[in-house]
């Protein structure tokens, strides 16, 4: 039995139709969609290990393998790409600075977080999705999707400002193709936009000289560096709160994809958490960063209306190949930050509005003060990256914003419901 059925004639999607997770187009087109996913995740997935002191090639390898594991365990039902989680950067650096943790000890923390996320997935799988729905109803997941999308806005705008002309060309190309075209051009708008921006930057001499030099010097073949983890108790207070962040990101990813694709993915929440936890455990055990579903890749799917897991598989295999080819990785790394900023400006904006769509579909009541106060405060804290200092521990806005939404909202919701009960009777 084939893993994917061919959508339509395979050469072009049916007009305005969604290419479902179990479908694919022709392999050349599927490879093109996979390249878009690769470009969307590449910049951040290579940046996170640089900021945390892990080998870039190893994280790239584990990102590809983790995505393949995710697709396998979710039985090709959930389109997703797992890239390096930005939420871990500040906590890991704080653990290294304040607790003197070595890279091996930081990796041990990532392994433990992955095991706990896996355990949450097992519990959800065994007890039913209602266990998670009670803690993360649509009002919560919509807020997390919105917060993730908007919290990435400063990163996108900062990249855009570095090289405004190629960034504007990329942004304009993507927007015009999505709005004007009804055919294949709209579905590969991100890829075309990046190519237009990169070509302009190359012809105008705007490529970063250091990256061009790295491309020239990089060998065609090289082995990723593997690092063994060590579990130290001193690292746990810094990383364990991130369990909630990873769980929230995975669940929010499923809700976002379900909202834009029109398919119910709730039955697969347990499998997604199990596979996501195992992927993070696998990555940390070999020297890679923690892995999570990527916001930019959700944006790619929303823009193209192609949810085929075959495209995600292509991106994963490409990441594995790149991890063994420093030359090819260096070539992609020559894409200017401004070009990526122009593309992600569209993708992150679309993701943020998916959070709003989740609220609209659930008919969230925003005359309710609990919804207004808790969700509004948490979203602004996450978007503004309001960092809290708890002794030597620094908690970023995206971390405590997610924790606040997931833990504090149900508590205050219960208190408000108890307050209103006497009035009803």
How does this model look, in words?
- It is built from 20 helices and 6 strands.
- The chain has one domain.
- With 425 residues, it is mainly alpha-helical.
- Helices cover 70% and strands 4% of the residues.
- The strands form 3 sheets. The chain has a two-stranded parallel ribbon with strand order 1-2. A two-stranded antiparallel sheet has the order 3-4.
- The model has no long low-confidence stretch (mean pLDDT 81).
- It is a multi-pass membrane protein.
- Pfam families: Xan_ur_permease.
- This is Nitrate reductase.
Instruction: Return the structural class.
Output: mainly alpha
Q: How many domain regions?
A: 1
- Discrete helix count: 20
Strand content: under 5%
Low-confidence stretches: none
Helix-strand sequence: EEHHEHHHHHHHHHHHHEHHHHHEEH
Largest sheet: 2 strands, parallel
- What is the spatial order of strands in the main beta sheet? 1-2
Residues in helix, %:
55-70%
Q: How far is the first residue's CA from the last residue's CA?
A: 59 Å
What general form does the structure show? globular
What's the Cα radius of gyration?
21 Å
| Average predicted confidence as pLDDT | 81
How many strand segments?
6
Transmembrane segments: 47-71, 78-96, 102-123, 135-153, 165-181, 188-207, 227-248, 306-325, 337-360, 372-391, 397-416
GO cellular component, one term: plasma membrane
Keywords: Membrane, Transmembrane, Transmembrane helix, Transport
Pfam family, one: Xan_ur_permease
